[in-house]
Specification:
The protein is an alpha/beta fold. It is 42% helix and 15% strand. The chain has a 6-stranded mixed beta sheet with strand order 7-8-9-10-12-11. A 3-stranded parallel beta sheet has the order 1-2-3. It has a 3-stranded antiparallel beta sheet with strand order 4-5-6. The longest helix has 23 residues, at 248-270.
């Protein structure tokens, strides 16, 4: 198993088949030149080729941004190989949460996986706060999704808030959620905090969400997702895999890396407002931390940046510019499509781009940075128009 960034002909040397997971849909014509190409992906695609086995929910009328993600497809293939693999449902759900496909309610295949996990006794569904951590104080102070301006990154401010509500900062998250009065009061205060800081409406409503507990693993979906994401972002995806599969020493190290990653993300978010440049329908910023651009763009536009504009992260990589773009679901509902816009803007300058309407990426020659931003902004304006005076700016 390898973590991949793009198709490489060397993968097919001596292999009967190569499975590309969470990638490949945008490269079907290129993959058709190699025997045994199998693509399990949920991104937007153009064109098909009978020489490529291409599994994608978009081919069946589903929304690849909401109805099924890469872990959904991996689970379906695993169960097709052996019905005994139904016990892998918790891992699929962790991926669904990581792709934020649970926020507006589960649908299609995702909902079916949760139902099968519950029927097998591997998943318990409930409601709770969208946090994870050893204590409620740590969970809020290190929270970056949601990001609470004035609380996230400030342990003393969190202790003061919890003290006002009569909640012990050292209590576990489970203990607080088990007290309806305390959890409701905390949820209300956190929601007001998000509204006051100008968070996108879809995120301000997410302070009390569906939670999925996995008794056999001694974990829940949010925790599982955060562990795997953190270790992967910090360059050690194998550690996250070992941790969730039950290796106790790996779990200890993964939890340490989770805290390290969250601290890095919080540091990046703290000054994001001050270094973001606004254009007509996008806002961009330079990112110098590897593997962090997409997270900062997504969290930024969700919680502290202008939700009327797509957030664009630019990361220099030698002669190339790596672009990560994120938008709110409300913008997408109005007609914005980041995958199409990035694909068009990048192609015109010798680059490539694609992904989802709400989250996409591109690679363009670094020398065309300014031209790319102008082309992308123009493409987004063509999709949804300029911001009208009636669209109030966030506070």
């Amino acid at each position: 198993m390898r973590e991949l960034r793009g198709p490489d002909p060397s993968w097919w040397d001596g292999s009967d088949a190569v499975v590309l997971l969470d990638m490949g849909s945008s490269a079907i014509p290129e993959l058709a030149h190699f025997d045994g190409s199998i693509v399990l992906d949920h991104h937007v695609f153009e064109g098909e080729d009978p020489r490529v086995v291409h599994v994608n929910p978009r081919k069946h009328g589903m929304d690849g941004s909401h109805d099924a993600c890469a872990s959904t497809l991996a689970y379906l293939v695993a169960v097709a190989l052996s019905p005994r693999n139904v016990d892998l449902a918790p891992f699929a759900i962790g991926g669904i949460i990581g792709d934020r496909q649970h926020l507006d309610g589960l649908s299609e295949v995702n909902a079916g996986i949760v139902a099968s996990g519950m029927a097998a006794g591997d998943v318990i569904r409930g409601r709770g706060l969208p946090l994870s951590g050893e204590t409620i104080g740590e969970a809020i102070a290190l929270s970056n999704d949601p990001f609470f301006l004035g609380l996230s990154g400030d342990g003393q401010a969190v202790d003061n808030l919890l003290g006002d509500l009569g909640i012990d900062p050292g209590a576990s998250l489970h203990e607080v959620e088990a007290e309806p009065v305390a959890s409701t009061a905390l949820m209300g205060r956190l929601t007001l905090r998000l509204l006051a800081q100008g968070a996108a409406a879809e995120n301000a409503r997410s302070t009390f969400v569906d939670k999925f507990v996995f008794p056999r693993l001694g974990s829940d979906g949010q925790d599982l997702s955060n562990l795997v994401n953190s270790t992967g972002r910090l360059g050690n995806p194998g550690l996250g895999l070992a941790a969730v599969l039950g290796d106790r020493s790996a779990m200890k190290e993964a939890r340490r890396m989770r805290k390290e990653y969250r601290v890095k993300v919080l540091a990046g978010l703290m000054d994001l407002r001050g270094r973001t440049v606004a254009m007509r329908r996008l806002q961009w910023f330079d990112n110098d931390v590897p593997n962090m651009g997409g997270a900062l763009a997504g969290l930024g536009v969700s919680y502290i940046l202008d939700p009327r504009r797509a957030a664009i992260s630019l990361t220099s990589s030698g002669s190339e510019l790596k672009v990560s773009a994120r938008a709110t679901r409300a913008l997408v509902a109005s007609g914005l499509d980041l995958a199409a816009a990035l694909g068009t803007a990048a192609a015109g300058l010798g680059g490539t781009g694609g992904g989802h309407p709400v989250a996409a990426g591109a690679t363009v020659p670094a020398e065309h940075r300014d031209e790319f931003l102008e082309a992308l902004d123009a493409a987004l304006v063509a999709q949804v128009g300029e911001i009208s005076p009636r669209q109030a700016a966030p506070s």
